[in-house]
Amino acid sequence: MTALKHLLSIADLGPGGLEDLLDLTDSFVEVSERRIPKVPTLRGKTVVSLFYEESTRTRLSFESAAKRLSADTMNFTVGTSSVKKGESLRDTVTTIEAMGVDAIVVRHASAGVPWQVAQWVGASVINAGDGWHEHPTQAILDCYTIRQRLGSLVDRHIAIVGDVKHSRVARSDVQAFTALGATVTLVAPPTLLPPSLVGWPVTVSHDLDDVLPKVDVVYVLRMQRERMTESLLPSLREYTSTYGLTAERARKLSQHALVMHPGPMNRGVEIAAEVADLPSSVITRQVANGVAVRMAVLFRLLGSGMELAHG
Ligand code: NCD
Hints:
By secondary structure, the chain is an alpha/beta fold. The protein has helices at about 15-30, 55-70, 90-100, 115-120, 135-150, 170-180, 210, 235-245, 245-250, 275, 285-300, and strands at about 45-50, 70-75, 105-110, 125-130, 155-160, 185, 200-205, 215-220, 260. It contains eleven helices and nine strands.
């Protein structure tokens, strides 16, 4: 495995890099299950999260991952920072770097910001979601969860359902799932698909009822209303009746099939409350695995030359 400086995109990893992180995650799941889920691996390193957009899971998950590795953490929140006084992104990043940080975890509403930050700093940069573009650690935790429950992604059929157009999760997931040998069908109304799917290794369907019995995983996306500048749907009720994973639809899934969602869920819109709580739903498992996956990512970026402590 060649040294990895930043994690900006799934394409940075390739299938080998992805497999390596999934294998490494196994060790950190084991650490997370210990009575004291903490190892000294990144003692003396500092990880800062620079979040220009809301987050619950991703922010807490990175923070918890850094702490379990004994790194120091700093949190930057736009609402309480000098950004409110007009400080630019570049000055903000330079200020943070001057304090001596080893990794910067960036979330921003504009695509490409993590790449920009990576050019300005010597620290490692991790993309925690940039606009509609990419969310690589979400895709890695999704792959890990599927592998944990189904053994492997090879020849598995995964349906990604809903608001693909605005979804950075879908863009990273499609790359990661297919790199690991799965086939992907996007299921969405034409208005919620990207304008061009050239280069996407997927098939498209507009008939969820037809797709459900054929898949190993149904991955439901959030309806990202905050990103919609125009009216793309006649009504949410109509969306739910055609593309929502209702309890009746979920009965069409085969017995081994998994239900996934990146969170936050709009229960009753894209997924029925009772479906989110079915035994086949691995939504809280995704969150739990997210911490171990981010430990693996931080270890890969910052822990080169270090031994992973066992026992
Ligand atoms: C996603 C995000 O912010 O991209 N959430 C997450 O990180 N788990 C998905 C979403 O907001 O719909």
